[in-house]
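TOKENISED FOLD:
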Amino acid sequence: MSSSASEKALTSEKFNDLKLKKPATNSVGLPAVTSAIKHALKYMDAKTAFEISKKINQKGGFDCPGCAWPDPDDERSSLGEYCENGLKAMAEEAQNKIIDASFFAKNSVDELAELSDFQIGKSGRLAQPMYLAKGAAHYTAINWEDAYKKVADHLNNLSTPDEAIFYTSGRTSNEAAFLYQLFVRAYGTSNLPDCSNMCHEASGKALSETLGIGKGSVKLDDIYKAELILVVGQNPATNHPRMLTALEKCKKNGGKIVAINPLPEAGLIKFINPQSPQKIITGGTKIADVFAQVMINGDVALIKAILLKLVEADATNNAVFDHEFIQKNTSFYSEFISDLKTYNFDDCVKRSGVSESVILDIVDLIIKRDKIIICWAMGLTQHKNAVDNIREFVNILLLKGSIGKEGAGTCPVRGHSNVQGDRTVGIWEAAPQAFLDKIEAKFNFKPPVKHGYAVIDAIKAMHEKKAKVFFGLGGNFISAAPDTVYTAEALGNCDLTVHVSTKLNRSHLVTGKEALILPCLARSEKDVQNGQEQLQSVENSMGVVSATKGILTPCSNQLQSEVAIVCNIAHETLNEKSTVNWLRYIDNYALIRDDIQEVVAGFEDYNNKLQRPEGFYLPNGARTRHFKTKTGKAHFSINKLPDWQLKEGEFMMTTIRSHDQFNTTIYGLNDRYRGVFNERRVVFMNPEDMEQKGLMAKDIVNITSTFNGVMRSAQKFKVIPYKIPRHCCATYFPEANVLVPIDSYAHTAKTPSSKSVIVTIEKEIIQNIPK
């Protein structure tokens, strides 16, 4: 009997042999090199691994499909511009196994769903388009023409275009993303949810409100020249390891670094640069000068405590703040100060979880420095008050005049490699009218002005059967989304689910009544159209657009590029109704860029600029102190303390990544820096909390969250004692996503509150599983 969509979406509750070691106190170094090489040679042949290592993130090469950390503008390392997890990502993308019709003939959807996410991802590269018929247990082969026709038939039989959802992952190129949003708008809807909705949407909202642009303001060179960097809610050693090289350069130049996070992370304690023999011998570079172990979602309280002391110090000598900058370039300063003074310092200290002495150390560093950068990731963005979190940190920068000058500014560290570029070229369910007007002028059709569904709203629409077709251009939607059971039920309600992918993932197993898997070229593979190798482009997290060109022979002759897939579906769906000649783009991607430059600001002379080996910077008003806000100035903001309170026996849970993981992709079962090996179904707890609940290391527990009267449960997790604040706990995603409520998200941004879920933890009554 076929299992339900929600059953297929849940990760396996089977345990492996959990091993625990003391958490690491340094990162990278030779262990990272060894791990990367072993991983690469296990899943790729040596020749492919060598070719990739010489071209990844190099000028004239291809952009890593992992994180969006920028590459140096000038010289790049001859030893490689990649990290351990970047090479793991490439091993996943260029693995030497392929999946074709014979694989699916041997393995039913239900059988594949029993595998772990790690096993699913390592099944191999998708090699031909596959179709799952209504009621069928196995995917079967389908040719491309029939696949395109099936998508078009479903879309054209909907009552309204708004019954279709078009999701985008951050790995999609600028060229494919621009055509994708163009097709969706020509089709007649704005339903363009994307992975930004689940990660940095809150950053975009907060920065747009305060600084007039939803992107960070710094360049990589600013990191080197900063006097003080606050690294908040992120784990660089795992999620974007090349950032550590930049932080090391900052330290070498005399800069100071403050780490603010609920968990101590090895990469922010000490970094051993694997490209420096001297650093390997001497033991590396101490990164964080101060570590503030904040309570989960205690960031606003911490910053208010810091701000109160800064205001007090400025009142004494009037030299702490940049008053000239404040008067000339900001609005709402007096309102901000008046509100701040209503808060009590001692109360803020208590609610932050950080000791007063540590707070005063941070205050002292801020007082004495003017070139300040604040970097953050999802530790700030995935809370109900995420927008407030970011706006409060911006307040510090505005007080110090640390915006729009060398060595200072905002640095949201994006996850997927082109998530920022996708938004820039139009992947946005709420695109501004000026962009839509340019679409209309260029392509002679009127795009819908009504805002579409972001991710949370899209899931609800599918669950309520208001949406009937889900199309995913990349990504692993079911494993990335919150409230796993609810999301799976939503996808199961669809008439058709379609995924454009390079490799198998769990989303291919949680389907609508019918399903398609459309295999596409990987970024590392040559994209040859009509005999010509095509160039594509991406934007990194600091606003640099650069070229990317694959070097490997595609793993199958049945793969198509994302551009070709989008164009063929658009042509088949819209047919003679379209004002766009879709098929002309397939053989020459330069034509796409010609059109982008007419629609998107900053892309003038796109094709010529893309010939620059280092790429080119897009305009950035915050970087030049041209704030495109309602007042034309940067805005101070008023932000409240979060209103949650824990009852007796409750914990504040945050979801985190392991070191063998990037986003939803699981590279292995180890979390080397945290000392966890061969297991992912774990919960990190403070030893005192464990003692209070009568728990010991490796005990098996069940975790429950209750929100708005709905109870959600994650069964069978093993307890790990860890240095985490009292009444807090941490779990890996996607295993714990089932606990994240669909209705709990950031105000105005709707990023899910995956980093602050109130839970209870109870010991499993029958312990019949070996430790």
Notes: The longest strand covers residues 710-721.
